[in-house]
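Good morning N.,

You mentioned wanting to compare the apo and holo forms, so I went ahead and generated the holo version with zinc ion. This is what I fed in:
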Amino acid sequence: MPPNTFAGASLDRASAMRTDEAWLSERLADPTSRALPVAPDGPYLRCEGDECTAALVPLSDVADEATELILLGVDSHGALFAATLDSTPAFDGAAPLSLRDAAFRVGQSDGGLLAYATALANWHRRHRFCANCGNATQTAEAGFVRACPRCGALHHPRTDPVVIMLVEDGDRVLMGRQAAWPEGRYSALAGFVEPGESLEEAVAREVREESGVEIEQPSYSSSQPWPFPASLMLGFHATYAGGEPHTLDSELEDVRWFTREEVELAARGESGFHLPPPIAIARRLIDEWLN
Ligand SMILES: [Zn+2]
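and this is what came out, ligand included:
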């Protein structure tokens, strides 16, 4: 199985080099260094029709305008930075596109790269001040730390774990829908992992809270970066153990069982209810169950 969409960036993250100030200075001055500009609306892409690629530009073209320069890593062409921008300057043939829209139009590696850069850009935009003392923070370690000059606190990029699980009972699966989703869309249940909770406990609690159903034997399948703004989706299959599904909180407007026949029809686009798109880990969980 290939990685999920938004995973699979094919570059060396060079994490050991983030603290090497001399090496970083050389890369910032190196004419072969490139940057992926990331505007408030999303990362820059170059598109021909519906097919797009990440728009990498010479670092020197964007360095002066960037609010942050973040070392993403190195590949065979040299160092690659994300350049976060507060505006939307023109670059030759490139324009920003939301990560959600970009996901349908780029290849695996570019999807991973765009998600990686967007996740870091989101974190910098939302964490400009020290959570400990309120002072403005400064970027350090090539964009992977924000340091507080007043109290000395070091803040690291944040990732929020979310469990997403398909509850299965032989030839039927449990799915729910949120009112804000496109008409007819149903998907696997999901929710944030809480402090002091294991993933398997979070799976059981979220299913109970959203549907009143009890599960057993949650088994991990795969994961997906989901930087909207900072989630990591952790996919599980879980076995039904009891209870009748019904909505309990305001999060879902409906939750119910679907038969294998219903899901197969929806997977072929021949049903009034719709599955999540192929870019979503929820769809992979459903396809794994169908197969
Ligand atoms: Zn501080």
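Residues 108-126 form the longest helix (19 residues).

Happy to go through it together on a call whenever suits you.

Best,
F.
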